[in-house]
Design brief:
single chain, 20 strands
């Protein structure tokens, strides 16, 4: 649903080409300006550039709702915020030869009380795969950098690392009035189909304070492989330990342990 549309469309009957010139669409607070061509002849080729001069994430969901509903059932519809950039539509009508990718920037994204101050990324649909590359996300003072690809064969690849991150960047701490101050390092990478994902995630929380009380570092390591997830956590130095070995296949064995001191 593109909303209100105006501009010039030219049909070249001799070449079977549809031309767009300054085709403007307005949906809610989002404004798109498209130019390019659609070859409907033997070649069947799309070559369209779209400028997003201003926009919002909910408006984009409305525009692409038909595609999202059928192809991205896991899309987080609750995200809000502003979005702008440029989208490039290339290829042929068949989904395995079609791409629509954007060099985008976003501000003040919110998802379940977590706020992203700024983000930039190249993301979209590329010949059967959903991609997000060169992702940079700013919370308050901390950043996440990484990327993710969900392929046409249902294979997931991802990586992410934090930079200058701390508990001050976690909005949930402020929302629940948790006076915890400490640096955080986060790193994750993984690959595989969703049911057989191999991944490693490391979370290190440095020495910090809870109000005026000094607290020791904490560390969490999570590994998924062979259809199992293994997690090991050391809380505030040696004050607590948490471990789990869980198999997500039916009738598989699992174990859990927790100790203090």
């Amino acid at each position: 649903n593109l909303g209100k549309v105006k501009g010039k469309i030219i049909w070249d009957d001799a070449k079977n080409i549809l031309w767009f010139e300054n085709l403007e669409a307005t949906q809610g607070r989002t404004r798109l300006m498209a130019r390019g061509q659609v070859d409907l002849g033997d070649v069947e080729d799309l070559n369209i550039d779209v400028d997003v001069t201003q926009g919002t994430v909910p408006d984009f969901h409305t525009i692409f709702e038909w595609f999202i509903t059928q192809n991205i059932p896991w899309y987080p519809k609750e995200i809000s915020g502003s979005l702008f950039g440029k989208i490039f539509v290339r290829g042929k009508p068949e989904l395995n030869q079609f791409s629509a990718e954007g060099d985008m920037q976003a501000r003040d994204l919110e998802y379940f009380r977590e706020i992203i101050r700024y983000a930039k990324f190249r993301a979209g649909y590329r010949k059967g795969a959903f991609v997000a590359e060169n992702v940079e996300i700013q919370k308050k003072s901390g950043w996440f950098r990484g990327g993710i690809v969900f392929g046409a064969d249902d294979t997931l690849q991802f990586h992410a690392v934090s930079e200058k991150f701390s508990t001050l960047d976690v909005d949930q701490f402020a929302f629940f009035d948790i006076p915890y101050r400490a640096p955080i390092f986060f790193e994750t990478q993984g690959e595989g189909k969703l049911g057989a994902l191999k991944s490693v995630t490391k979370i290190k929380i440095g020495s910090g304070k809870i109000k005026n009380l000094d607290v020791k570092p904490s560390e969490i390591n999570i590994v998924t492989q062979n259809k199992r997830v293994e997690a090991d956590a050391k809380i505030f130095g040696s004050q607590g330990h948490f471990g789990i070995n869980y198999g997500w296949e039916r009738l598989s064995n699992s174990s859990f342990e927790f100790s203090l001191g």
